[in-house]
Structure formats: structure tokens, C-alpha cells
Amino acid sequence: MASNKLSSKEKLIDAAVYHLNTEGLNNFTATSLTRAANLGYGTFYKYFSSTEDVLEDAIKKRISDWSHLISESNKNEPDRLFAFIEAFYKTIIELSNNLSMRWLLEKPNYFVEVYFELTFPHAKKDVESAVETNQISSDYLNNFETIFKLYLWQMCGALSMVDEGSNYKDIALTLIKLIIPYGTDEVKIEQICKLLEERNSNKI
Q: Looking at the domain that runs over 52-203, which CATH code has it been given?
């Protein structure tokens, strides 16, 4: 699972990500992680004081990997407003169909902090491009940092509802309608939602 070129710490983090994506928080212990990383038990405590520490690093790696994939898949999208919105949609769909959702929700503050750090620069560029092409008002950029963080907290709330049994397809589209900038034409909103469903139908 892990390359020999990776450090012992990186192997443990990779083992943690793999474990969480396949088993969730079940049997998430130093013993299971060191065994999966093919390392001695004592190695774990050279880098982490507890499983909580490696959990946070695993969250950061998971979000980093996912944000990179989204950025790559959306970079050739000419409609930057759509690219900005689709990034949220893809994240909700991905997490709703992955055991990682549950453990990400165990650390909502950290999830928001890390996701913001890794994705805000991309989101801001997309919004700036949307303003330049007159898709949305320049007023939207005012306090965008705060707005974006609120969107992330809304995402956590949406994922919590999915975890409690709500239909993730309905939740995803409802959240997207909240995220679409105020003042966007109703026809444009419907076009965005339809296109999101069509492009991501293979994941639903």
C-alpha cells in the first residue's frame, strides 16, 4: 500500500487514510495502523502522541488529495461560476458515498479550517473570473472569505443530515441552490443544477 520512498510518518498517515476510507473509525488504533504500514508498534509514538493526532493529519491529506483532484478536473471549465459551484457539489457527492464522511464529521472545526486553507484561493479566483465576465456582481467579493467559511459550515450541516438518513441527492442540490450567488438568474440556476446532475450522474 505504501511506497518504500515514503517516510515512516507518511506511511502511518497513508495507512490511516486507507483505514478510515474502508473501515471508518472501527478499530482505529495504533496497533492496526502500524500493522497496516508494516512498521513496529513503537514507531507510531515517535510521530504521534495519540490516534487523534494522526486522525487530523489524515483529514488534511484526504482533503488535500481531493481538492487537487477537483482543481485538476475543473481547470478547463470556461464557466468559472459553474466551476466554483461544481467543486462544492462534487465534494458533497463524494463524501456522501464514502465512509470518510463520518470521520470528517468527527472533526468539523478542523475540517472547515483545512478545507478553507486548501480551497479558498481557487474559489476566490473562480469568483473573480465570474465577476470579470459579468456573471455575478462585484459586491459578491465583499467579505467573500467569511461567506466561503459559512458555505463550508453549511456543507458540514448538509453532510450531517445525510449521515442521519436524508437523501444525499436532494440535500446536495438544495445546498447548491443556497451557494449559488444571490441575484443569479432563475433560468441560470436551473441550468446549473441540471448540468451538475448530468455531469456527475455516474457518481449518484
A: 1.10.357.10
